[in-house]
Amino acid sequence: MNILGVNAYHGDVSAALVCDGQLVAAVEEERYRRIKHCAGVPRHAMRACLEIGGLAPADVDVFAVSRDPRAHLWRKAWFLLRHRPGGTVSARARNMAGVRALPGVLADALGLDHARVRQRTRFVEHHPAHLASAAFVAPFDAAAVCAIDGFGDFVSTSWGRVAGSRLSVDGHVFYPHSLGMLYLAITQYLGFPSYGDEFKVMGLAPYGEPRFTREIASLVRLGNDGQFELDLSYFRHASEGVQMTWEDGSPTIGTVFTPKLESLLGPARRRDQPVDARHEAMAASLQAVFERAAMHVLRHVQKATGSTKLCLAGGCAMNSVANGKIREETGFRDVFIQPASGDNGTALGAAFYACHQLAGQPRAFVMQHGYWGPSFDDGTVVAALDAQEEFIAGQGCGRRLWTDEAALDDWTAAQIAGGRVVGWFQGRMEWGARALGNRSILADPRRADMRDIINTRIKFRERFRPFAPSILEEALDEYFVGAVPDPFMLQVYPVRPDKRAVVPAITHVDGSGRLQTVSPRSNQRYYDLIRAFARITGVPMLLNTSFNENEPIVLTPEQALDCFLRTSMDVLVIGRHVLERDVARTAESTRVELGNRVIG
Ligand SMILES: [Fe+2]
């Protein structure tokens, strides 16, 4: 049975293909449209999944859509009658109409008959799709499951349990109460207005003292049995309504906090104002309040299920700082989070929900790695390089083809150890927000200045944002305290105090690091490269940041080449092809840029 999972008319639209219980492909639309968190309909992502699976659109047996307009209808109607929120009603109605009409839109996008697609479409409620995205691909037969996010189908938080191929939902927190909304409100207040900016505030938090915890804690009241409520006088979404756009293109969300928040905390930061100690303290306080509330939910889920294993999903499961504390602060001992735990992951969850929960198929799949996107053959790489031949030569870049992969790994590792920044493009594209060593920019974690070099020469991003390490799985304990292997880079742990000076470029200001463990099971090629670096330096890790520059992660060889040519990366490795910038020129431009630019 071929199931195409679809997340549409939400943020981070995506598609996933599951064939006979096995994940075949999972792709986010933003990589094709080159618009971060792209909303609308994932036309390119659906086609990419089918192409990877070698299927024609007519081969799809089930279209599993991760929304259900009929879910919680009475509750929605009751809420609307009581609160009569302004702008949200018409926007919500439009969105619902869009979701209902989706079978026709999918049919048009794939050149299929409307009636055929309608008959094969299953609407899977948003939160069960989140839960299934973790529960049905985790390495556990039975576990507790929990999803915490902004909202979807009127729910912000849900939990339950999975046993084999059965998922049961035991509890909910309903709209308008939401920890995602709490984080969003303070993120906007701190002057980060773009969709998905919450991770910037998480990166800022370790710089500050949490001295506004009491004030921010007054925005959320923790109740019994894992429940919580927002103080709605600080939020606009339930009363006045907030404009949200989920049409084609970039998703937008209007201001969700009320003027009362400024009475409580002082004036909000405008996006052009510098980030100061007060903002850092607020970020720290928000993170502390969020963690307290998330652990409150998770402790209840642990007690209610009696399980020590947790499958976690939802946008809030991207909070890697909180994720790293779950085992310490709750009774859970094993935590599984798949790499697209935000709304992108609901396409995957809807597909597996249709496979197991609706069709009753037994489970046959565990997600061991995060590489579920397309790959590109050597001919495509050569064509991309040939097309830019003149420009490449004009930039003083040398071009080489290596025949021996092991020798190329040794050479690349030596370049990184020598302080050069390498764009590394191999195999299938990553699924989820993190680059995991197939579309990555790599550098030496031992160099304290590497953070500034990458921020000013390549990424052009805020100075406070940390860089993450990819570490050989077997070396984890040598460098981190209390950490567990995570091939998806979703948990933050303390770097051992005696190692912080050894790897300053990946050690955040509070001594932590958001690590990715690499093993031959998850990525043999990347593992070999890190091993080559360890042979030269004695340090079994690389600094790994996503291959992009203020855009979605690169998808194709052309995009990788464009990014290389417009930034000041030193080396580009695509498959076995290498471009290398002139050493003297790069050093000179670095000095000039570091002297002139101040970011963040
Ligand atoms: Fe969600």
Determine the structural class based on helices, strands and strand pairing: alpha/beta
Strand content: 15-25%
Low-confidence runs of at least 5 consecutive residues = 587-600
Name of the CATH class of the largest domain: Alpha Beta
Features:
binds fe (ii) ion, 9-stranded mixed sheet, Nucleotidyltransferase, domain 5, 39% helix, DHBP synthase, 600 residues, 5-stranded mixed sheet, disordered C terminus
Structure described in brief:
It contains 23 helices and 23 strands.
Could you please describe the fold and organization of this structure?
The chain has 23 helices and 23 strands. With 600 residues, it is an alpha/beta fold. The chain folds into three domains: 2-139 and 339-358, ATPase, nucleotide binding domain (Nucleotidyltransferase, domain 5, 2-Layer Sandwich), CATH 3.30.420.40; 174-336, 2-Layer Sandwich (Nucleotidyltransferase, domain 5); 378-596, Carbamoyltransferase, C-terminal domain (DHBP synthase), CATH 3.90.870. α7 crosses α15. The radius of gyration is 23 Å and the shape is globular. The chain starts with a strand and ends with a helix. The structure holds fe (ii) ion. Residues 126, 130, 149, 152, 314-315, 343 line the site of fe (ii) ion (FE2).
Show the helix and strand layout.
Blueprint: E1 2-7, E2 14-19, E3 22-28, H1 30-33, H2 43-53, E4 62-65, H3 73-83, H4 86-100, H5 102-110, H6 114-120, E5 121-123, H7 126-135, E6 142-152, E7 155-163, E8 166-174, H8 179-189, H9 198-204, H10 213-217, E9 220-222, E10 228-230, E11 244-245, E12 252-253, H11 259-265, H12 277-305, E13 309-313, H13 320-323, H14 326-329, E14 334-336, H15 345-358, H16 378-387, H17 389-394, E15 397-401, H18 405-417, E16 422-425, E17 439-443, H19 450-459, E18 468-472, H20 476-479, E19 491-494, E20 512-518, H21 520-537, E21 541-546, H22 557-566, E22 571-574, E23 577-581, H23 583-596
Parallel strand pairs: 1-4, 4-5, 6-13, 13-14, 16-22, 18-20
Antiparallel strand pairs: 1-2, 2-3, 6-7, 7-8, 9-10, 11-12, 15-23, 16-17, 17-21, 18-21, 19-20, 22-23
Helix pairs in contact: 5-6, 7-15, 8-12, 18-21
